Amino acid sequence: MKKIVALVGSNRKESYNKKLALYMQNRYQDKLDIEILPIDELPMYNQDDELDPPAIVNEIKGKVKESDGVLIVTPEYNHSIPAVLKNAIDWFSRVDRVMVNKPVMIAGGSGGVLGTVRAQMHLRQIMNSPGVSALTLPGNEVFIGAIQSKIDETGKLVDEATIQFIDSVVDNYIHWIEQTKGY
Ligand code: FNR
User: Fold this and answer.
1) What ipTM was predicted for this assembly?
2) What are the pLDDT digits (tens) for 41-76?
3) DSSP alpha helices (H): ranges in 36-156?
4) Quick check: 6 and 36 in contact, CB under 8 A?
5) pTM score, two decimals?
6) Which of 65, 102, 141, 154 has the CA that lies 20 to 30 A from 71?
7) What residue stretches are annotated with the NADPH-dependent FMN reductase-like domain (predicted)?
8) Residue of the CA atom closest to atom 29 of ligand 1
9) For atom 20 of ligand 1, which residue has the closest CA?
10) Measured in angstroms, how far is the CA atom of residue 12 from the centroid of ligand 1?
11) Exposure string (b/e) for 93-108, b if CB count within 10 Å is 16 or more?
12) Which fold has domain 2-179?
């Protein structure tokens, strides 16, 4: 069983992206052990503190370090990724650089038609920065437009085409984790 940590880019209670991450945690539980990390509890990154950070920083970084891969599910804020996600990545990119060579899968949904395209373009660039150096699953872009119409009131993804697409991307991601082992 592969241990995956999930980073959700929205800190609001009724977040569609959080619901999507929870849905994936449940749907793929036979293949992946997905733990959603509370990155919204991380303090604001400060370089003065990076060598001796608050305990929660080490706790969350440790979980990323020990994982087989990182799943990022994020909305788009002002054509980029939300600060809560960037803040977490900035902590992860320093000192022991816990995302180096981690296989990463990205998904995201928004209310508009583009479904986080611009945020994910930025995110892929960030994943390639020297401090991060993650191994992002190539291709396989999961953009979910009009996400409010695809998740029901119980938090379940109900759009069949989207479900099937994510199923296929998760299979590709599992293959990618195998392919990138030993990097
Ligand atoms: C947004 N939203 C948004 N949507 C989009 O497609 N492109 C964008 O650039 C933005 N920018 C943006 C900025 C801020 C500050 C907010 C609060 C919202 C709308 C966004 O996609 C929508 O609120 C989603 O529902 C947010 O995701 P969660 O919280 O439901 O996961």
Assistant:
1) 0.99
2) 999 999 999 999 999 999 999 999 999 999 999 999
3) 55-66, 83-92, 117-127
4) yes
5) 0.98
6) 154
7) 3-145
8) 15
9) 110
10) 11
11) bbeebbbbebbbbbbb
12) Rossmann fold (3.40.50)
